Amino acid sequence: MSEINISVEVDRGDREPQPDFVKLERIRKHYGSVVALDDVSLDIREGEFVTLLGPSGSGKTTCLRAIAGMMTPDGGKLSIAGRDLSSVPMNRRNIGMVFQNYSLFPHLTVAQNVGYPLRVRRIGRSEAQARVERALSLVRLDTYGDRRPAELSGGQQQRIALARAVVFEPDVLLLDEPLSALDRVLREEMQLELRRIHREIGTTMVCVTHDRTEALTMSERVVVMRDGRIVQDAPPEQIYLQPESRFVAEFLGEVNIVAMTASNDGRPFQDEAGRTLALEPSSPAGSNGAVDLVVRVEHVGLKPAKEAVDDGHRWRGEIREALFLGDAVRMVVDCHPHVLVARLPIERAIGLKPGDIVDIDLAMRMPMVFAR
Ligand code: ADP
Ligand code: MG
Description:
- The strands form 5 sheets. A 6-stranded mixed beta sheet has the order 6-7-8-3-9-10, with helices on both faces. A 5-stranded antiparallel beta sheet has the order 15-19-16-17-18. It has a 4-stranded antiparallel beta sheet with strand order 2-1-4-5, with helices on one face.
- The protein has helices spanning 60-68, 110-120, 125-138, 154-166, 184-201, 212-218, 236-241, 246-251, 346-349, and strands spanning 22-31, 34-44, 49-53, 75-80, 83-84, 95-98, 172-176, 204-209, 221-226, 229-234, 255-261, 269-270, 276-277, 290-296, 301-304, 316-324, 328-335, 338-345, 357-361, 368-371.
- β12 (269-270) and β13 (276-277) form a beta hairpin.
- Residues 1-9 have low confidence and may be disordered.
- It has 9 helices and 20 strands.
- The chain folds into 2 domains: 7-241, P-loop containing nucleotide triphosphate hydrolases (Rossmann fold), CATH 3.40.50; 254-371, CATH 2.40.50.100.
- The protein is of the alpha+beta class and 372 residues long.
- The structure holds adenosine-5'-diphosphate and magnesium ion (MG).
- Magnesium ion is lined by residues 60-61.
């Protein structure tokens, strides 16, 4: 489905969006000896689209459940629009939720499913009907009101779940791995759809995913979690290009890691074979000179080596494998003692094949250096 550009600006009057509309202050939760949330503090701007990204078990769902009121934290403070939620039960929080499994009522029609939250809130019939129509049209399923969930595809069912979550105009929309059950093509389409819906309704959205591409594509801000803690909180470009730790760098994509030694006197970095590389910063704080150079596979340059001489100090290697990926070629290069991986756009891989000797450019774009 193509993305139709209807930018409906959301009217908040003259008011600036509240920077800490959703506010988590040192939220803690443990289950036995497992610390699911370890002093999580997070401010979410009114109307913002934030993604919580992290491996399985990092505390993402627990964080959403805390906001929704589905569980009570052991400590910390939570507020929405300045209102302390500690004594506000789940059904009084005005929060919409979408889960991986659509959890639609199978015996109700699509329109009855979407209208369900309005019945619970005792909204009058004609008003409810108008709202259901608007919600169905928002998710582009205007004509599906009379069907049953079982008659819809997975993607359509997820759209219905979304319509049901926004029909009562929640203050916040929480989405827990909403696209995980969909196949790749549908998932990519729905990522754009979620962005469009966010633009149209302007609701504050917090989405959980373990899929880095999804997080980078969809949201305005990515909060990376690990072991119940926030390890980085930044816009997608910054998370990808300036990760603050090796963990985030590795979680965001395939990388090469080369152990290097830095010196404080301005000389370049060296690997164990004595190959040098001029990099900024010349020595990260606290590293004692031992660093990991981290280079994304898509940021490695390869060129056929011109002269045959190799004094062993050049970044030069032999292509061992070339795997055609469609839009790119994944090359494995032996650069003793390192085995490096490069992902080259197809036009830059032309003429390179296993057995070729290549010059390797590791500092071509955005190399990252972390203290070891
Ligand atoms: P994520 O959503 O990032 O995969 P969760 O928030 O579901 O992670 O879980 C974080 C940690 O808390 C995990 O170690 C998980 O096993 C544990 N946990 C979550 N919910 C419960 C629960 N109801 N009972 C016991 N342990 C739980
Ligand atoms: Mg989860």
